[in-house]
Amino acid sequence: MTGVAVCSGSVSSIKSLWETRIKKTKQDLQKQQEQRAGVGRVRHNWEDRIILAKLKEKVVTEEGRVILRIEKEEWKTLPRALVHFPQLMEWQLHRVGLQTIPRFISSFENLLVLDLSRNAITEIPKEIGKLTRLRELLVSYNRVQSVPEELGCCENLEKLELAMNRDLDELPSEISNLKKLCHLDLSMNQFTEIPESVVSLPALEWLDMGGNRLQSLPHDIHRMEKLHTMWLQRNELEFLPDNICYMRSLDTLVLSNNKLHDIPSMMEDMNNLRFVNFRDNPLTYEVELPAAPKKSEDEEEDDREMFGRDFMRVYCQEARKRVNAMLNMHRVNPPESNYTSELNVILEAVAESAPSL
């Protein structure tokens, strides 16, 4: 009996000692964790201060505007500490390798200009729609694949540049809600047509869709009543709609490097056109302009601007002359339409007069 009591006491002592050690170990571990957390908070606060100090160096004031300007540095993401600068009115971040537009962009209600060109951005977040004061959104030379419909909520947007995003091939219908948009650059993408939402923009004055895959222009293109400049070079256009002749505000039209075979004869009367370029198209007729006398440098510059317009007029005149000659040859009365339609009549007449096989 005595041996059992001793054994029992020994077990109790060992158990108590073990529990004490375990408790102390837990307390030590908790203390270490608290110390690490404290160090982490200190480090985090210190890092925040460093980031804030670095960002503060990038904030400048010019002409009354508070601007965040970062160029040729490595900023793949923007720290949330940026929200400490709600007064920012412009972001100018070029060639910094930025991959995402932060969703906290919606915190910057004073933003007027968001210039993030020449980065690696793949997405425009839907939070962009919260920036109702935004006037310019410049995201050219990135990797954007789609545009959110929320962009249509940026009611004061005047300038939108999405050039050279390569895989971009459509826009949401909500873009037509941008009643103040006057400048749109969609060049060097994959569009096969001018989106209806673009044709419906009431204030659009400048449009660049060069370097896409446009195969035709919308029949109602003349709805863009205020458009004065249209760049359509390096596409796959084979013909122009007759209604292009009713674009009364159009003064600059670039159609070089397409697949055009003819110029609508009614374009001859587009006296508002100051500059037009049909170079490098497989046009049906070859025409030459009369040699001009040697002029001053300024006059030569004017001539270069006039060359395309003069070429267009001479081409239309030459085409009409040849069509009328062919009509007379086949004794066909010319319809009251442009020579493209007249050519169709000629072809029908030739087909009727050809001997059957």
From TrEMBL:
<dbReference type="InterPro" id="IPR001611">
    <property type="entry name" value="Leu-rich_rpt"/>
</dbReference>
<dbReference type="GO" id="GO:0031430">
    <property type="term" value="C:M band"/>
</dbReference>
<dbReference type="GO" id="GO:0055008">
    <property type="term" value="P:cardiac muscle tissue morphogenesis"/>
</dbReference>
<keyword id="KW-0963">Cytoplasm</keyword>
<keyword id="KW-0514">Muscle protein</keyword>
<protein>
    <recommendedName>
        <fullName>Leucine-rich repeat-containing protein 39</fullName>
    </recommendedName>
</protein>
<dbReference type="InterPro" id="IPR003591">
    <property type="entry name" value="Leu-rich_rpt_typical-subtyp"/>
</dbReference>
<dbReference type="GO" id="GO:0060047">
    <property type="term" value="P:heart contraction"/>
</dbReference>
<dbReference type="Pfam" id="PF13855">
    <property type="entry name" value="LRR_8"/>
</dbReference>
<dbReference type="InterPro" id="IPR050216">
    <property type="entry name" value="LRR_domain-containing"/>
</dbReference>
<keyword id="KW-0433">Leucine-rich repeat</keyword>
<comment type="function">
    <text>Component of the sarcomeric M-band which plays a role in myocyte response to biomechanical stress. May regulate expression of other M-band proteins via an SRF-dependent pathway. Important for normal contractile function in heart.</text>
</comment>
<keyword id="KW-0677">Repeat</keyword>
<dbReference type="GO" id="GO:0045214">
    <property type="term" value="P:sarcomere organization"/>
</dbReference>
<dbReference type="InterPro" id="IPR032675">
    <property type="entry name" value="LRR_dom_sf"/>
</dbReference>
